[in-house]
Amino acid sequence: MSLLALDARWRRLQDKFGGVFDIGFDMPAAWPHAEPTEEAPEVVAGPDRLAPELCRLGDSRFLHVILPLPIRGADDTLFIAPWVEVGAETFYGYLDHITDGAPFVPGTGQLANDLPLFPGSLGAEVELQPGGEGARPLLVATDGPLAEAQDEGISFDQLLDLYAATDHDIRAQLSAD
């Protein structure tokens, strides 16, 4: 049994939402065109293109990645799906990975979304590691509060703060009925 199982809010999260749910970003912060929708998940605007996994904006290239954040006191992990600006070699290497099954070669990039609760995250240098077969690359923060959160985990209250900051404020639903 995890320590969080003693927290009634945690038990309600399990009951009402099926547990921890992921947070995703639909596009890099710099994307100036229309937002993708369920009906049109791919957006093309002249030479710029945004697809669910890849984005080209002018000379910039972006990958949709996974940022795992363990939750202290639980066996669960929050997965956030931000975008990372990468060099052409990493971008096209990933494209080869998803189309031809070539191995994904680890690389570096800059975080292309501003992550709530992590000041200065937009533009932060990060490493990308293989995410496993068929999975997005894993983001590994190398410095600052985000790296600390990856190493030490986030609290349940920080999880709720992240949800609230990304338009999923569930606190009221977790309070006693």
Would you kindly provide a brief summary of this structure?
The protein is of the alpha+beta class. The protein is 26% helix and 25% strand. The chain is built from 5 helices and 11 strands, in the order αββββββββαβββααα.
Detailed description of the structure:
With 177 residues, the chain is α+β, with helices and mostly antiparallel strands. The protein is 26% helix and 25% strand. The protein is built from 5 helices and 11 strands; from the N terminus they run H-E-E-E-E-E-E-E-E-H-E-E-E-H-H-H. It has helices spanning 8-17, 88-100, 144-152, 156-165, 171-174, and strands at 23-24, 43-45, 48-50, 54-57, 60-64, 67-70, 77-81, 83-86, 107-111, 125-129, 138-141. The strands form 2 sheets. An 8-stranded antiparallel sheet has the order 2-3-4-5-8-9-10-11. A hairpin with a 2-residue loop joins strand 4 (54-57) and strand 5 (60-64). The longest helix is centred in the middle third of the chain and has 13 residues, at 88-100. It is globular and about 50 Å long. The mean pLDDT is 91.
